[in-house]
Amino acid sequence: MKDLDSRMPPALKAVFAGSEDILGMHEVHDVPDTLKEHAIDLSSINAVIWSHAHIDHVGDPSVFPPTTELVVGPGLKASCLPGYPTNPDAFVLDSAFDGRSVREVDFANSTMTIGGFRAVDFFDDGAFWLLEAPGHTGHHICGLCRTTEDSWIFLGSDACHNVAQLRPRQFRPLPDSVPASLLGSFYGLAPGMHEDLAAAEETVGKLKAFDGREDVIVVIAHDATLLEVLDFFPLDLNSWRLRAWSAEARWLFLKEFDRIAAV
Q: pTM for the whole thing?
């Protein structure tokens, strides 16, 4: 996200004070810049979807025209609005919402569930589903995107922060080549990272089942190992299954445990 310091509300600066290096937050080219670099007019973007309203996920919706809708999870308006500066204690900015439609996804009226998640068909064509996935925040949502007739990408956002929280499990047993002693390094969800730990654990339990499928690749926001494997915009991910990216990436996170052990 660009202009991180100037766009961070004062209340959030107080939370992050002295922990910038630990959190690893830094400025990068953001989505609007990337779109412009590839000659995509921001006015052609109909909607921006927030998985949740944390600063490393919200970007800067204010640079999109008012015709771009902001789509958020249920309860976000009650927990986050008004933003800063109207509310001096807010963690999001008023500018993200000003002058545009802000739509909360209504899962309460959904009659569809996918893998235990209440789901809403975003385009009404079965190509992309928004999933109710609370825990990390009360309004946290995930996405399930069809890539081919028989393959999907699960966009897990911050349902968990490391795939070691998904595997090894019954769906993904540890390879025989990996020392069993590493099992002690695997960990569960950290209470301080989630507003509702019990709800987060329920969400991750459902996510583990998706992670065990051969027709789904799970992408969580902070899984840096995928940087070594996946193609990135303007290329697409539709051929992930044909190119066996899921299998290639599955155990790359173990390198981190090797690094920790060597310290």
A: 0.91
